[in-house]
Specification:
- The chain is α+β, with helices and mostly antiparallel strands and 163 residues long.
- The chain is 44% helix and 23% strand.
- The chain contains 3 helices and 5 strands; from the N terminus they run ββαββααβ.
- Strands 3-2-1-4-5 form a 5-stranded antiparallel β-sheet.
- The longest helix is centred in the middle third of the chain and has 33 residues.
- The protein is elongated and about 70 Å long.
């Protein structure tokens, strides 16, 4: 189960809660973060959020942190559709282009490359659409209520315990 922390931004009486999840990048998690070009690009696009509603068995006030879970199989299937399907399409298109070139007597290399590119793009488009449907049908579940985040402004130094 893949887990993510979300913040409640709304809740209704019908048992639905609206949450906001910060989209995180895998960059900045290794020791090469300062010298990596990909890390610099990822920093430019940080701060994106995804909002959605999901069913809840209890009421959560705005600002409550929830741990959400999504089955890993959904993510793996979507990744396979988006990454592997175009690769397979590239090979099938190349073979198909070579066969068409033999039948028509045209340049074999050019026809193979053109068909490989066309079938790979078509497979990528199809895979992307199917992955969106697959991810849209997958409903995250609430695993835990993490409570409200602590505010540093609410700490009063006069009420601190001294020994």
């Amino acid at each position: 189960m893949m887990e993510q922390v979300a913040t409640v931004i709304g809740s209704d009486a019908d048992g639905w809660v609206t949450v906001r999840v910060e989209m995180k990048s895998a960059c900045n998690h290794c020791s090469q973060g300062e010298s990596c070009g990909t890390s610099a690009v990822a920093k430019a696009f940080t701060g994106r959020y995804q909002e959605f509603s999901l069913p809840a068995v209890e009421y959560y006030s705005t600002g409550t942190l929830l741990r959400l879970g999504l089955p890993e199989s959904v993510i793996l299937k979507a990744a396979a559709l988006v990454y592997l399907l175009p690769l397979i399409g590239l090979f099938i298109g190349g073979i198909l282009g070579g066969s068409i070139a033999q039948l028509t007597g045209t340049n074999s290399d050019a026809t193979s490359m053109l068909m490989a590119l066309m079938v790979a793009v078509a497979a990528w488009y199809f895979g992307k659409r199917r992955a969106k449907v697959l991810e849209g049908a997958a409903q995250p579940v609430i695993l835990a209520n993490l409570g409200r985040p602590m505010s540093t402004e609410s700490v009063d130094s006069d009420h601190c315990c001294h020994s």
